[in-house]
């Protein structure tokens, strides 16, 4: 088990120690259950009154909450960011694959492997693939012909990286995700579907994290592009030729149709649906279950969907929605009548 002193955690977070700097910390825990040897944090000032009851060995707080602490404290600018950094430092998550290449892995003779590469059981690395230094490929993964994985990138079990796909440095891909599968491209000739080969690829930048069971389609002609520092949650569909800008975060279950361009630093709430061939401006926030049918050219917070109601209330609402067109016509007729009366 990793254990660090409060002094070491202060270096990691840039925090100021109030208390014993030699205190050993081995884990992060919630404030209401933290105990000896653990550190916790406070992000909501309304809970400051409970700090005196906390049994953690140390607490990460802002200066304004320091007076409430009855134990060692680490004063930081942002306790939640400090929590993230400390959690990384104390992380005990195992590697997706043991050091070295498993005997059952199949690695093409002309694949290029960097230094300290680890490849798990039954993984397949095809011809011309390139894996940078310290890449980790989990059990059962497939790396297609000519695919590239940058330094320190990690794939958990059963990830499929199709031919020609490029991942940058320090990426993390969770289990069963598929990157580079065919986009939904077909022509119709007299009722018969004709498949359009998807000849683009997927280009993913550095420090991108992709959740489990997510699909990112390759481009039809140009490439599907995900810029640096993007985070994509579980069970998502990113269609062909989508472009996601730097620092954007997208929550689980979201579907993005083809050729949509999402700007930098956007936040897309879970279970949202984005129509194809639209553009989302930098800094846009779409709340959960948002249905984005048109381009959003200005930064702001956007919402759609109807909050949960009882079934009886929902039936009334649905009935009224279906009558909107009729009500609109009647309203216009009344307005016209009023105009005539005023004349």
Automatic annotation (TrEMBL):
Its EC number is 2.3.1.191. This is UDP-3-O-acylglucosamine N-acyltransferase. GO terms for cellular component: membrane. It is an enzyme of class 2 (transferase). Pathway: Bacterial outer membrane biogenesis; LPS lipid A biosynthesis. Homotrimer. It catalyses: a UDP-3-O-[(3R)-3-hydroxyacyl]-alpha-D-glucosamine + a (3R)-hydroxyacyl-[ACP] = a UDP-2-N,3-O-bis[(3R)-3-hydroxyacyl]-alpha-D-glucosamine + holo-[ACP] + H(+). The active site is at residue 240. Keywords: Acyltransferase, Lipid A biosynthesis, Lipid biosynthesis, Lipid metabolism, Repeat, Transferase. The lineage of its organism: Bacteria, Pseudomonadati, Pseudomonadota, Gammaproteobacteria, Vibrionales. It comes from Vibrio thalassae. InterPro entries: Hexapep, LpxD, Trimer_LpxA-like_sf, UDP_GlcNAc_AcTrfase_non-rep. Catalyzes the N-acylation of UDP-3-O-acylglucosamine using 3-hydroxyacyl-ACP as the acyl donor. Is involved in the biosynthesis of lipid A, a phosphorylated glycolipid that anchors the lipopolysaccharide to the outer membrane of the cell. Belongs to the transferase hexapeptide repeat family. LpxD subfamily. One of its GO terms (biological process) is lipid A biosynthetic process. One of its GO terms (molecular function) is UDP-3-O-[(3R)-3-hydroxyacyl]-glucosamine N-acyltransferase activity. The keyword Chloroplast does not apply. PANTHER family: UDP-3-O-ACYLGLUCOSAMINE N-ACYLTRANSFERASE (PTHR43378), UDP-3-O-ACYLGLUCOSAMINE N-ACYLTRANSFERASE 1, MITOCHONDRIAL-RELATED (PTHR43378:SF2). Residues 24-88 form the UDP-3-O-[3-hydroxymyristoyl] glucosamine N-acyltransferase non-repeat region domain. NCBIfam families: lipid_A_lpxD, PRK00892.1. The gene is lpxD. It holds the Pfam family Hexapep.
């Amino acid at each position: 088990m990793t254990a660090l002193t409060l002094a070491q955690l202060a270096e990691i977070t840039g925090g100021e120690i109030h208390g014993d700097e030699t205190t050993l910390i081995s884990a992060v825990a919630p404030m209401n259950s933290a105990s000896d040897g653990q550190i916790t944090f406070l992000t909501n000032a309304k809970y400051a009154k409970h700090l005196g009851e906390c049994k953690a060995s140390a607490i990460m707080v802002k200066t304004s909450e320091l007076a409430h602490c009855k134990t060692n404290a680490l004063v930081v600018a942002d306790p939640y960011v400090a929590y993230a950094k400390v959690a990384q430092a104390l992380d005990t998550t195992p590697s997706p694959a043991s050091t070295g290449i498993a005997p059952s892995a199949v690695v093409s003779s002309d694949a290029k492997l960097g230094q300290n590469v680890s490849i798990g059981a039954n993984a397949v690395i095809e011809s011309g693939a390139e894996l940078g230094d310290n890449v980790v490929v989990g059990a059962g993964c497939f790396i297609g012909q000519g695919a590239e994985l940058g330094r320190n990138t990690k794939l958990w079990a059963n990830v499929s990286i199709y031919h020609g796909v490029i991942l940058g440095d320090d990426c993390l891909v969770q289990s069963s995700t598929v990157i580079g599968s065919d986009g939904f491209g077909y022509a119709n000739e007299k009722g018969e579907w004709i498949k359009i080969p998807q000849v683009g690829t997927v280009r993913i930048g550095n420090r991108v994290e992709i959740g489990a069971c997510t699909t990112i389609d390759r481009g039809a002609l140009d490439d599907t592009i995900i810029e640096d520092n993007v985070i994509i949650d579980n069970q998502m569909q990113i269609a062909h030729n989508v472009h996601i800008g730097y620092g954007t975060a997208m929550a689980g279950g979201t579907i993005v149709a083809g050729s949509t361009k999402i700007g930098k630093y956007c936040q897309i709430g879970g279970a949202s649906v984005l129509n194809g061939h639209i553009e989302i401006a930098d800094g846009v926030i779409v709340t959960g279950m948002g249905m984005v049918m048109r381009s959003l050219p200005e930064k702001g917070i956007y919402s759609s969907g109807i909050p949960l109601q009882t079934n009886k209330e929902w039936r009334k609402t649905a009935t009224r929605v279906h009558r909107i067109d009729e009500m609109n016509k009647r309203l216009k007729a009344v307005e016209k009548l009023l105009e005539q009366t005023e004349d």
